[in-house]
Amino acid sequence: MIRYVAGRWGASAALRAARIGGGSLPELPTSSGRSVVVRGYAAKAGEAAEPSFYEFRDRKIPFVSQLDIHEPSLTGGMPCFRVLDETGQCVLDDASAYEVDEELGRKMYENMVKLQTMDTLFYEAQRQGRFSFYMTCFGEEATVIGSAAGLDFKDHVFAQYREHGVLMWRGQTFQEFADQCYGNHRDYNKGRQMPVHYGRKDMNFQTISSPLCTQLPQAAGAAYANKLANYDGITVTYFGEGAASEGDFHAAMNFASTLACPMIFMCRNNGWAISTPSDEQYTGDGIAGRGSAYGMPAIRVDGMDALAMFHATTIARDYVVKNQSPILVEAMSYRTSHHSTSDDSSRYRELSEMKAWKARDPVARFQIWLEHKGWWTEEEESVLRAESRKAVMKVLDMAEREQKRPLRDLVEDVYDVVPEHLEKQYQEIKEFAKKHKHLYPNDIPIE
Amino acid sequence: MLRRGNGVVGRGMVERMVSSMLCGGNATTTTCSRGFSAEVGEQQRARKINLFTAINDALNLSLEEDEKTLIFGEDVSFGGVFRCTSGLLEKHGSDRVFNTPLCEQGILGFAVGAAAMGYKPVVEIQFADYIFPAFDQIVNEAAKYRYRSGGMFSCGGLTIRTPCGAVGHGGHYHSQSPEAFFMHSPGLKVVMPSGPKDAKGLLLSSIRDDNPVVFFEPKIMYRTSVEEVPYGDFTVPLGKAAVVREGKDITLVGWGSQVGVLRQAAEEVEKNDGISCEVIDLRTILPWDVDTIAESVTKTGRLLVSHEAPLTAGVGAEIVSTISKECFLNLEAPPLRVCGADTPFPLVLEPFYLPRQSRVIAEIRNSLAF
Fold first, then answer.
1. In this structure, CATH architecture of domain A78-401
2. B4 in any annotated domain
3. Cβ–Cβ of B6/A9 closer than 8 Å?
4. What are the tens digits of pLDDT across the range B132-152?
5. pLDDT tens readout for residues A77-131
6. ipTM of this predicted complex?
7. What end-to-end distance do the CA atoms of chain A give, in Å?
8. Distance between CA A235 and CA A228 in Å, rounded?
9. Where in the sequence is the signal peptide annotated (chain A) (predicted)?
10. Would you call B115 an interface residue with chain A, using a CB distance cutoff of 8 Å?
11. Which of A162, B110, B357, B369 has its CA 20 to 30 A from that of B138?
12. Nearest by CB to A217, which of B6, B109, B150?
């Protein structure tokens, strides 16, 4: 059905009046070219006072005689859903609706441990100068793994950069992570991007880029396209609370809402955008509090509680599938790591604060719960940790020894085919490099 | 059925004034969305139409030939402020032809995402002057999407249409020609037609091209430029300049509405001075056709490049520099640039700002006298 209204300024006053159920309202002039319409046809003095409204498009705003300022809520705000407390105890009277089975619980835990191990050793490898850059997701393991577990493999993911756990959940190996960080010849990006800018076509995970928040309106567009194509999956975009200050956040929320895009906006609110604490980032009720302003439902959840994250994501996903429209999820956590290997976070925050949050380690919290359920043992713990360490060290050595991609990749993929001017530039660079091999790294094949 | 708002949002009084002036008063539905017959023979037939109708033809054809083609932007539903999308919503439905909220970075981000899913968004930025909020999405995202992912992902289906150039009274923000900003961005293609026939053929090529294309439409030509345009499908290749007038004394290079200025200047100096000018319409600004221009300059020994955009670091600088190297031994005079001044685009001083015919003629004479 084509929804197309006559006239440049939309429905007539009569149509609007009919829509809001005020059929007896006076006919209003429509030639003004303005969508601001009805002013002051409240009951005259002496007549029976009927409720009067400011009729605005398809909304009916009641007039009031008291001039009030609508203050934002300064305390509280949207509550935060959780299942497990900091000690790993279930806080729900009836937890039956918010459990997972043993197989899923173990899988989530194993992935969180592997993620933590990989982050630890990759971080150290970077500090030793073995590759150029790294970012960990300490403190957010439950956010990422819990949400990944709540999604479907066919859901398209547009990530920021601190969500490599989603790829791990979908099957990316330690070796593949390491190959990307080293930019060797097996890197899917062909060694073109900085470390941690992962991407996998076969895992429905769009390649990460550094500019913050650009992926949000892209995810909305992807969700819209997939809806037209009747694709059997939704779109999910991850972003931090700092990125949510970008204009692209506003663009994406508004587009997704007005164009009814089936997607989840998954915000990781970890309290810090590099050195900027979240109270310098916004004064409203976090990110979730913005949902209603865009006409979008929202969920706030404890991002350090893997069970809560899993269920919040599952419920958000069901909502999106059922309503074919977007939802916003804000996962509250704390970035216990430095922002990146180029950052020393002790310069802008108290060690005590970091220590206090580290003690609330989401991985340990989930482990206690698993042990309490009888699904995990100390012995399994030490085996998993030891084997993960061994495996990660091995892939780092392997990735390091691999050759880089050939020089030809400099000019490939800029366009679908290499244009003439670029071919010429490649030939010039190649000829120069061949004559001056000593000036260039020897692990890059020139031809 | 997709849920969406049904409001037609105006940008503001200035834009309304400008666009209504440009649209020739009340924007009414035009007759430009005629059917396209696939019958043999019909393909060859042509009719006289203006530039916005030629654009409309190309858009209609693209929507017909591929269900993945989408058209969206500000005010495109009712036909667009320049009538380019007139009749398309009624014909192809509001799922494929729709208004977006008023936000250029959103339009581009949304388009990149849809293109990444294999769709072909042909998006409109209402005026090229307002493309800058989307600069990040175009330059950092669209242009680099394929390269940075090692070829795994691409947004090659994306085409960005935007009206550009002087219009007589457009002032700072309804007159700009920002093509040079995009020429500096590897991964993009940048195109500007100089008449209705090329507009249709180049736009069809741009939509089908598997790379993001920024397609500039000289808005002063929307109604004023009329020529025979074939019905049905035909394309004009990207990356190929056109020699629109042959000559032997000097090569004049321009694009968009400036091609008309150069042609008129060429006729005038032929008549009055006996100077024979070769006029080249560049058509594609990135990647541009070095060979056609170098070949011409090798023959004429002289080069003049002219564009409306400011002189410094304009597209002319790239052409003059490259041709100076390629044709150094053939040049008999310094290559010249006749361009807009290095100022914001002025309102009442527009006649002084623009590189008009008289200035081009004076520079042609200077070159020949060198």
1. 3-Layer(aba) Sandwich (3.40)
2. no
3. no
4. 999 999 999 999 999 999 999
5. 899 999 999 999 999 988 888 999 999 999 999 999 999 999 999 999 999 999 9
6. 0.89
7. 57
8. 13
9. none
10. yes
11. A162
12. B109
